[in-house]
Amino acid sequence: MIIYPNDFFDELYDIIGSDDLEKFKKMVDLPSYRGIRINTLKANIEQVRRLLNINFEKTKFCKDGYYIPEDAELSGSDALHLAGAFYMQEPSAMSAVSLLAPDPGDKVLDLCAAPGGKSTQIGCELKGKGLLWSNEIVKSRANILLSNIERMGIKNAIVSNCHPQVLCEKLSGFFDKVLVDAPCSGEGMFRKNPDAISEWSREHVQACALRQLHILNTAKNTLRAGGEMVYSTCTFSYEENEGVIKQFLAENPDFELAEVDMTNKRSYMQGCERIFPMDGGEGHFCAKLIKKGGENDNIIKEYSPAKLSKSDLKTIDTAYGEIFPKRHFGEKISVVNDHVFMIPDHVPDISKLGVMRCGVYLGDIKGNRFEPSHGAFMASTSDQCANYVSLEYGSEDLKKYLHGEEIELKSQEDIKGYTAVTVDGITIGFGKSSNGRLKNKYPKGLRLLNG
Fold it and tell me: Which of 112, 184, 234, 272 is the catalytic position?
């Protein structure tokens, strides 16, 4: 039985009233919602539903979001998850990016991005066009963010570990859309993680509200005139939600709230939306702010990679064409300490911004040869690769591959060289084929030890 603080319910009563509070209390000890979001860059719901043999039910918070049935066994070690076919995400958390509504070609900043659920959702919506900049101030969390960006095959992303104020000052006026999913008191996670209740207090709520307003006032600087910014939290507190928005608008007359489609959601302030457990999600708050028109007077210097030697350029160019004949990562190349990256369009100067990854990590120059990276294959479909082998979901060969073992190719003995490995057509990694064998190149840190 989950025991909430009495003053938590007192505050909630002031927001939602007695009838809805009773509905909320009836949800307290029921199982929390579980959800997945299909990664449309790599898969579709029909594939995932068929292979997992799970009857997913659609959510109303995201066009690609689904509920996981209570009795379904699904974990991060599932092959489809490792292949980036889906992201496990609390259903109402998907609403923030749905409200932001990124369009292909937009330049989008996710300022507080780890672990990556919302960033990878933005990446899906951009469809490989435009630019996603995902930032996380805590290094350990930024590493998790980077791993998820790579797993989901997003090729037009920059991942940084930078203080928001430094980032936002340097990239003033650069972005079309910004997401601020602010650190909060986490009241919407109490059903999912009851231990979080012990950390809750009125003082913590008030401290969060001050920090959130500061982050929002920092993030606003990165928006171009006419740009849009979504502020979201996973808490119910009025101070952290409507209170922050009211104070922000009072301090920033050049911003206004956008009209919000409130279908199947709740609002206690025009332009803001709330989701409670009785609405089908653990809890979320979202508001979209628009920066009023005008002209941008800040010119951002573009990123200019260092020139390559003729020998390095030839090594990279030859290998790139041989492994990925369609050259689908474009032609903008950057080399840092023999690590080769394919740079997306619209990249600004990234110096002194804690950038951990810009674009796709293509591979490494090793003397006069080139070895591709796991991330390059994860951001590729099988038809974009010169070679690929297909392993059946649940097969012994797939299990061997995920354990790091060498695989016999059987009917595909003629394949030679670097080869994508797919499960039901979804790329999960790569190997090197020779004489009817596939030498395993699945990263050691991702290999499964059991199962």
Answer: 234
Q: Is the pTM of this model over 0.85?
A: yes
What's the length of the chain? 451
Cα 321 to Cα 370: distance, rounded to the nearest angstrom: 12
For CA atoms 91, 95, 97, 101, the dihedral sign is positive
Q: Is 234 a catalytic residue?
A: yes
Q: Scan for tokens 């982050």, then name that residue.
A: 215
Which are the contacts of 439, defined by CB distance < 8 A and separation ≥ 6? 406, 431, 432, 433
| DSSP conformational letter for 407 | E
Cβ–Cβ under 8 Å, residues 397 and 391: yes
Exposure string of 275-288, with b = 16+ CB inside 10 Å and e = fewer, is bbbebbbbbbbbbb
The residue with tokens 């990679």 is 305
Per-residue pLDDT tens digits for 100-154: 999 999 999 999 999 999 999 999 999 999 999 999 999 999 999 999 999 999 9
Report whether 289 contacts 231 (CB < 8 A). Answer: yes
**Pair of tokens at residue 251:** 């301090």
Which stretch of DSSP H or E encloses residue 417? strand 417-423
Edge-to-edge strand list for the sheet holding 426-434 = 388-391, 417-423, 426-434, 437-440, 407-408
